[in-house]
Amino acid sequence: MAESFWIGLIFAAPILGFLINGFNFRSKNYKLAGTVGTLAVATSFVSALALFSKLVSLPEAERVITHSFFQWISVGNFHVDASFLVDQLSGVMILIITGVGSLIHLFSIGYMSHDERPAKYFAYLNLFIVNMLLLVLGENLLILFVGWEGVGLCSYLLIGFWFSDKEKAAAGMKAFITNRIGDAGLLIGMFLLFMLTGTLSVTEILAQGPFATEVTFGIVSFACLALFIGATGKSAQIPLYVWLPDAMAGPTPVSALIHAATMVTAGVYMITRLNPVFMAAPISMEIIAWVGALTALFAASIGITQWDIKKILAYSTVSQLGYMFLALGVGSFNGAMFHLMTHAFFKALMFLGSGSVIHAMHEEQDIRKMGALKKYMPITHVTFVLGWLAIIGMPPFAGFFSKDEILWMSWHSPMGSKALWFIGLIAAGMTAFYMTRLMALTFWGKSRVPENVHPHESPISMTLPLIVLGVLSVVGGWLGIPHVIGDVFGHIPNILEHWYGPKIVPIPGLEQAVASHEYALMTISVLVAGASAFTAYFWYTKREDIPKAISEKAKPLHSLVFEKYRVDEFYEAKIIKPAIETGKGLWAFVDVAFIDKISYWITSYIKDSGGGLRLLQNGNLQQYAFYIVLGLLGSISYLILG
Amino acid sequence: MPDLSQYDVGLSHYLLLSAMVFCIGLVGVLVRKNTIVILMCIELMLNAVNITFVAFSRYQGNNDGSIIVFFVMAIAAAEAAVGLALIVAIFKRFKEVNIRFFEHLKG
Q1: What is the pLDDT of residue A512?
Q2: Contacts of A559 (CB under 8 A, 6+ apart)
Q3: DSSP helix/strand/coil, A370
Q4: CB–CB contact B30 A629 (8 Å)
Q5: Are the C-beta atoms of A469 and A100 separated by less than 8 Å?
Q6: Looking at CA atoms only, how far is residue A615 from chain B in angstroms?
Q7: Per-residue pLDDT tens digits for A549-568
Q8: CA separation for the pair A242, A564 (Å, rounded)
Q9: Residues 86-105 of B with CB under 8 A from A
Q10: A68-97: buried (b, 16+ CB within 10 Å) or exposed (e) per residue?
Q11: Tell me, what's the pLDDT at B1?
Q12: Is the pLDDT reported for residue B26 higher than 80?
């Protein structure tokens, strides 16, 4: 069938699902709503598969499917088409979005079975899929922006889904407002790109390349930096990451879909989409690399101290996104997209696994009240273990290949440095520590489950997505096996690198990899991760007194990290409060004293003149009769005199 | 028998009389507060017009004007019936028939 049909269907199905569930939003029939929602996304997934297979069947140089539905905006010689672009980058993205999305929809049916408003939930979720697809498929940056705002809206709606709880409603607002700040950056970046190239169409912008590298900080660097600020908002990087941990107030499948697998990777995708432009701005790239590396380290360290299972996963997500930006910054767009994919698998898996645990524990999220859940929830446990091995980077699980590519490139690429690699390595060690701590406290060790809670394995609709994602977390990394390992096993190609190749600008001055160096770095990172994982396992299952003693000894440091470096408090005191004070000042002095006065003066003037005129029409019949007489006299005198 | 030819009553006399009666009625409508009096003044104005009609009818030597007078009288009767009904209603409500109370009709 024609490409336009599949592109239409990929959007139409979730839109239809959104409309059906949206009009039926009072329905409490979670099975019906869930089936409609899941089928809608599954249909999208089928369309994505069709598009992807079409893409594969095309010759390598022509792997682009575009279709323009109509002209959206036409002002003077500025035109925006509602046109969509499926290529190597967006092709993989739509598979991830609709594939992982379908699994999470399926999982949600069981998870939301006790909820009051399941139809509304599925309507929002389908709307999210629509917007995410707009974001990745949009051929024009304006369409991307529509999707970008749309996913932000859905994220807000779903974080605050249980809005009767004030804290959760506030978390939704925080996410929305923080994202607005980033969006301002994105808009400025888009304006600058438009100024530079005269178009917002991605294909047209990239067709104007190759771009001359900017040695000093010029307009291209500024545009890239502005776009990156947009990315820090959506993809939760320093300094705008604060909304993501709070976003865990939403239902857990939402955290899996929006705040781990898809939406938060929008920034990574956007930068990769425009990678030839970013490669022309080495200064901005260096900033991106450093922000990414520091975010990875910073968030991982917070993850070590948290007790809320979802908060740990949230900081882990921030940290893994940091890795992706590190990869972007050192020019390894392939590594970033690779880690984006594997992270989507294993982090969605772990979020859904934590959802399964939370569901079984009757909405308990504190891992201090769990322990030894292995024997109650065997499937959740086994799949969680797969995700755990993937994220801490044990070969041959998915995370090993993607994380190692990032670490290797940050060492090897001329745009990277040893310091970046070292920060990445430390963060990897911390990742292994906090994830093992999570595993040990939740699934292993002694049971600390309260007596009135009886954990149970989740129904098949919830475990099936876990199993599928578990398998993907194992095999997902095999798509990007590095050459040094591939050569040993008889020339296994690095499929992903080959696939993305035509879309990605090669790093200038990249030397041939030295196999022994690459092996050495791999060994180091696996050893560091293994050692820290073992330490965490030993401490939290056998000797819980050791971490307690350490946190007692380093009390000031521990409480600083536990309170998330008090960044929220800092923002509150230094940014939000002054902003509110300024607002109040403007209100009192500008609005009340000046603008209001003008409008009051105008209204009172109009009111007075109206009051004067009102005397003419006061309801006194005799006065009206007098007007008639006056009119009569007037007409007569006109007839006689005129 | 005195000679009345020098006092011959012509068309202009009728019209003058009519104008005077009309003005009396008009002023009464504009200044009086008692609704019954106002109704009577309206009656005066209508009859002033009637005089004009009859005068012209006689002057022109046909009966067209006289016929219209019957219509005017019929309408005046109908108007008086409606007006008096309103006055009765107002009187029942306010125990007075001041024209100002008719403002309440605007709701």
Answers
A1: 81
A2: none
A3: coil
A4: yes
A5: yes
A6: 14
A7: 888 888 888 888 888 888 88
A8: 10
A9: 99-100, 102-103
A10: eeeeeeeeeeeebbbbbbbbbbbbbbbbbb
A11: 62
A12: yes
Please, is A611 exposed, middle or buried when counting C-beta atoms within 10 Å of its C-beta (0-12, 13-18, 19+)? exposed
Average pLDDT score, chain A: 90
Taking an 8 Å Cβ-Cβ cutoff, which residues of chain A contact chain B?
A: 619-622, 625-626, 629
Of A619, A620, A625, the CB nearest to B29: A625
pLDDT of residue B4: 63
3-state SS, residue A83 = strand
Whether A293 and A230 have beta carbons less than 8 Å apart is answered as: no
Structural element, H or E, at residue A70: strand A65-75
- CB contact under 8 Å between B31 and A622, yes or no, is yes
Contact assignment for A626 to B99 by CB distance below 8 Å: no
Identity of the amino acid at A473: S
Q: Is the peptide bond before A239 cis (omega within 30 degrees of 0)?
A: yes
A344 contacts: CB under 8 Å, gap ≥ 6: A96, A100, A260, A261, A262, A265
Q: Which of A44-48, A75-79, A421-425 has the lowest mean pLDDT?
A: A75-79
Question: B106: which chain A residues are within 8 Å (Cβ-Cβ)?
Answer: 619
Which residue of chain B has the CA closest to A618? B103
| CB spacing of B30 vs A619 below 8 angstroms | no
Instruction: Determine the distance in angstroms separating the CA of A625 from the nearest CA of chain B, rounded to an integer.
Output: 7
CB contact under 8 A, A622 and B102: no
Q: Do A621 and B99 touch (CB under 8 A)?
A: yes
**SS3 state at A366:** strand
For chains A and B, count residue pairs whose Cβ atoms are closer than 8 Å. 16
Which amino acid would we find at residue A221? S
Task: Output the pLDDT for position A528.
Answer: 93
Q: Which chain B residues touch A628 with a CB distance below 8 Å?
A: none
Token digits of residue A83: 């046109």
- Give the pTM: 0.81
> Does residue A556 or residue A604 have the better pLDDT?
A604
Closest residue on chain A to B101 (Cα): A620
- Identify the structural domains of chain B with CATH numbers, from first to last: 10-106 (1.10.287.3510)
Q: Is residue A136's pLDDT more than 70?
A: yes
* ipTM field: 0.82
Q: Which residues in chain B have their CB less than 8 angstroms from residue A622's CB?
A: 29-31, 99
Domain boundaries, given as residue ranges, for chain A = 1-139, 140-562, 585-641
Please judge whether B30 and A621 are an interchain contact, meaning their C-beta atoms are less than 8 angstroms apart.
no
